[in-house]
Amino acid sequence: MWSQLKDTKTLSKNTRFDTIQEMTCEHFSQEKKIEPKAIECEECKKEHLPTVALRMCLTCGHVGCCDSSVGRHATKHFEETGHPVMKAVPDKSWKWCYVHEEYF
Question: Which of 9, 57, 64, 103 sits in a 20 to 30 Å window from 37, CA-based?
C-alpha cells in the first residue's frame, strides 16, 4: 500500500491518516460535499431521548445520535438506507465506515 501511495503523492510528516485510508475504502468515493440536514438528532428530539454525540451521513446529510446514545439513530440510518460512511459532527475529526467497521 505504501508503494501505491508513494506513486501518487510525496509522503511527509503531515500526510493525514484518513488520506491513506481513503485510497483503500471504496465507500469514500460515495461521499459528497453535503451540509448537515439538522443541528440535532431529530429522532431523539421526537422520542424525548438524550443525545451523547452526533454523526452525519456523508451520502445524504442525515444527522443521528451515536451508538453511545440510547437511540443509536446514526446506525439505524445506515441499516435502513445502506449509506456506508458518516463522520462526527460538529468537529468532523474522524469518519466511520459501517461496512468495513473502521475509523478513517
Answer: 103
Residue 64's closest CA among 25, 29, 36? 36
In a domain, 14, yes or no: no
Amino acid at residue number 68 = S
Structural domain harbouring 51: 30-103
Total domains, the chain? 1
Residues 73 and 66 sit within 8 Å (Cβ to Cβ): no
Instruction: List phi, psi (to 5°) of 31.
Output: -65, 140
| pLDDT tens readout for residues 21-42 | 445 677 766 566 888 999 999 9
Q: Is 62 exposed, middle or buried (0-12, 13-18, 19+ CB in 10 A)?
A: buried
pLDDT in tens, 34-70: 889 999 999 999 999 999 999 999 999 999 999 999 9
Answer yes or no: are the C-beta atoms of 66 and 74 closer than 8 Å: yes
Distance, CA of 53 to CA of 33 (rounded, Å): 21
